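Researcher: We're teaching a course module on how sequence relates to structure. For the next exercise, students receive a sequence and then see the predicted structure as tokens, so they can try to spot secondary structure elements on their own. Here is the exercise chain.
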Amino acid sequence: MTSPEESRAGSRWSSPRMRQQLRRRHRAERRFRRASATAIALAMAGLATLLTSILWNGLGSFRTTELRLPIHFDPAVFAELRDLPPAEAERALARADYGALVRDAIRGIFPDVEDRRARRALQGLVSSGARSELRDAVRADRGLIGRTVEWWVPAAADVDLLRKGGVDRSAPEADRRLSDREIAWIDALEAEGRLRAVFARGFLRSGDSREPELAGIWGAVVGSFWTLLVTLAIAFPLGVSAAIYLEEFAPRNRATDLIEVNINNLAAVPSIVFGLLGLAVFLNFFHLPRSAPLVGGMTLALMTLPTIIITGRVAIQAVPPSIREAARGLGASPMQVVGHHVLPLALPGILTGTIIGMARALGETAPLLMIGMVAFIADVPRGVTDAATTLPVQIFLWADSPERAFVEKTSGAILVLLGFLISMNATAIWMRRRFETRW
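Model: And here is the predicted structure for the students to work with:
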């Protein structure tokens, strides 16, 4: 038997008005689900478009064009080496006119080119890096002097761009970087089998250059390594120590509350503010070397410190109080409780937060621009005080370059940076799942 109250409630829920309200609610829920699915689909489509564009433009940076030339190592070019001591002969070998060898070789392929301006255009099909390669080859083997060797040298960026379809042949000649005559020369070289596409080793092994075909990311990668090393050496011990103190030893009063509020606020401060702080303190006050990984790492450490402190405190809070109480019950001191029990159990979470903070530091550009790491650096840094740049700043520099060939280099550097960031975040996720303790 149902009570009168249950009967009235049942009739109220089954009334036409209530059924209409339920239908409206269900329709609103279906609209919300469709809107959510549409938003996710649009976000995924945008991400796929972005990644596809980067891949389309960036994969070509790992391939470059080489030109085969009949290089005659003319003894007349190296005539001054005779009767010189070994040390002076080595210096004279470095000063030799290797450009003349390249000019003679390319002119030998097109002997009918007599006009001076046309000859300069013909020589422009060969990269300036060919001289460096020939110099290194002769310094490694002096037996090349006097011989004629078919040698593969780097082609100019415009030649590589034409072979990759980056030059519109149908466009008017005035709107192209390559003239009709230059395109005819390149086609003739292609027909003779003097052009080939090879893996761009220089892109991964060399530093920056004004010439797109010679520019590489190795200098920026090494600069990022030194910068992150300084950041980690400063931010990790300070961040973990601050988290332990605030969570385990600090008294609960207004001072600690103020410190906690400031730490949380610093985590949300725009990164360029830390760059201004680094400019004012490290450069203008302490006069540390400009554009050096030492200053860049210290600036990024200031930015990363709040993240490490916050994640460290969360990891320490996750350790059950019973572990602390059991350790104290066995006679452990407060430092022993933290060092032997709390910190080892919280370390996986601390390391995860540290890796995420370092990944954010790796992708930062604005703070480093403020401290001068935007300079053109062709040499690979050997320490934290050498002038250097980082991978995001290198991307910024190439993206601002008017050379069309640098678009490819920019996308390739973005792919490398994304690879590093994905690896660091994947490592953080793996560490969290591998060492996470279920209480």
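Model: If you want an answer key for the exercise: The chain has two domains: 64-199, 218-435. The radius of gyration is 32 Å.
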